C-alpha cells in the first residue's frame, strides 16, 4: 500500500476528510520520535476512518482485535505500540475539547498509553537520562523526580499569565518555542513524553487560533524531538549553548507555512554531519 495515502486528503473540499487526513498523517508521523513504524493494517484502517466507513472507536477496536488474533512474538517489535498510539493520537487530534491544565497533559498520556505502559498517566518517581544521537551520546538534564509536579504546575501558571497581545509573530513563535521546550524538558513520564507533548501542544496552539492542517509534524517529527533536545542542552566549555532557533524554524513551517529546510544533521552538536 502507498505509505503516504493522506496527502490527497489535504486538498479535500470536505472538511471532515481533510481534518481526519491531517490527524492520521500527524499521528503516524509522530511515531518516528521513538523510531517506531506503523503497519500496513493501520494504514488501511486509517483510510476507512477518513472515508467515514468506521468511527475512531471502531478503528481502535479493530486494532485491539487484530493484535489479539496476531500477537507479536518478537519482544523488540513495537509495531503494536505504534499502531495503537497512532490511532489514539488521531482520535485526540480530531476532538476539539481541551483545557490548558496539568491534568489535561497527564490525561493525554493516559489515553495514549493505557495498556501499553504500566505508568500511563502517572508522574515518574525516578530520575532518568537518555543518550541522544544529536548530542553525540550525551543526555539532556531532565526534571528531578522529586520536583516534577511542582515544576509542571509552575510552567503552566507562567504560560497562563502570559499575554500575547501586541506581540509580533516572531515574538509569538519564540515564546511558543520556549514554552514547549520547557514543558518537554520536565519529562514528566518515564516514556512517551515527546508524543504526549506534541499532542498537547497542537491542541493548545489551536486555542490560540492557529490552523495546522499540513504535513510538517508528520514529516519532521524526529527533527522536532532533536530541536527540543538542542533547546535544553549546554556544553559551554565546547561552545554549545541551548537554543530555540531550530525549534522556531520548525514552528514557522508549521504555523506560517514557510519552507525552511529541516535537516537533522544540522542539529548535531559536532557540526560535521
TrEMBL record:
Keywords: ATP-binding, Nucleotide-binding, Nucleotidyltransferase, Transferase. GO terms for biological process: regulation of cell division. It catalyses: L-tyrosyl-[protein] + ATP = O-(5'-adenylyl)-L-tyrosyl-[protein] + diphosphate; L-threonyl-[protein] + ATP = 3-O-(5'-adenylyl)-L-threonyl-[protein] + diphosphate. Residues 100-252 form the Fido domain. Its EC number is 2.7.7.108. It is an enzyme of class 2 (transferase). PROSITE patterns: FIDO (PS51459). InterPro entries: Fido, Fido-like_dom_sf, VbhA-like. CDD domains: VbhA_like. Gene3D superfamilies: Fido-like domain. GO terms for molecular function: AMPylase activity; ATP binding. This is protein adenylyltransferase. The lineage of its organism: Bacteria, Pseudomonadati, Pseudomonadota, Gammaproteobacteria, Aeromonadales.
Amino acid at each position: 500500500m502507498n505509505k503516504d495515502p493522506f496527502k490527497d486528503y489535504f486538498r479535500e473540499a470536505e472538511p471532515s476528510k481533510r481534518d481526519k487526513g491531517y490527524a492520521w498523517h500527524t499521528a503516524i508521523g509522530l511515531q518516528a520520535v521513538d523510531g517506531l513504524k506503523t503497519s500496513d493494517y493501520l494504514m488501511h484502517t486509517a483510510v476507512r476512518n477518513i472515508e467515514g466507513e468506521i468511527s475512531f472507536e471502531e478503528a481502535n477496536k479493530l486494532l485491539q482485535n487484530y493484535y489479539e488474533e496476531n500477537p507479536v512474538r518478537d519482544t523488540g517489535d513495537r509495531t503494536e505500540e505504534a499502531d495503537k498510539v497512532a490511532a489514539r493520537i488521531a482520535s485526540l487530534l480530531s476532538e476539539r475539547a481541551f483545557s490548558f491544565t496539568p491534568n489535561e497533559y497527564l490525561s493525554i498520556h493516559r489515553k495514549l498509553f493505557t495498556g501499553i505502559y504500566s505508568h500511563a498517566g502517572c508522574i515518574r518517581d525516578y530520575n532518568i537520562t537518555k543518550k541522544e544521537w544529536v548530542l553525540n551520546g550525551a543526555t539532556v538534564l531532565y526534571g528531578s523526580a522529586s520536583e516534577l509536579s511542582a515544576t509542571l504546575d509552575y510552567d503552566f501558571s507562567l504560560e497562563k499569565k502570559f499575554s500575547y497581545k501586541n506581540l509580533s509573530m516572531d515574538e509569538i513563535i519564540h515564546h511558543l518555542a520556549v514554552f514547549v521546550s520547557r514543558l518537554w524538558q520536565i519529562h514528566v513520564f518515564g516514556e512517551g513524553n515527546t508524543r504526549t507533548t506534541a499532542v498537547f501542544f497542537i491542541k493548545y496552539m489551536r486555542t490560540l487560533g492557529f490552523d495546522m492542517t499540513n504535513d510538517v509534524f508528520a514529516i519532521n517529527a524526529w527533527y522536532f524531538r532533536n530541536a527540543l533536545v538542542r533547546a535544553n542542552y549546554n556544553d559551554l566549555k565546547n561552545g554549545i549553548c541551548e537554543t530555540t532557533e531550530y525549534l522556531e524554524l520548525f514552528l514557522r513551517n508549521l504555523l506560517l507555512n514557510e519552507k525552511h529546510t529541516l535537516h537533522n544533521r544540522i542539529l548535531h552538536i559536532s557540526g560535521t554531519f
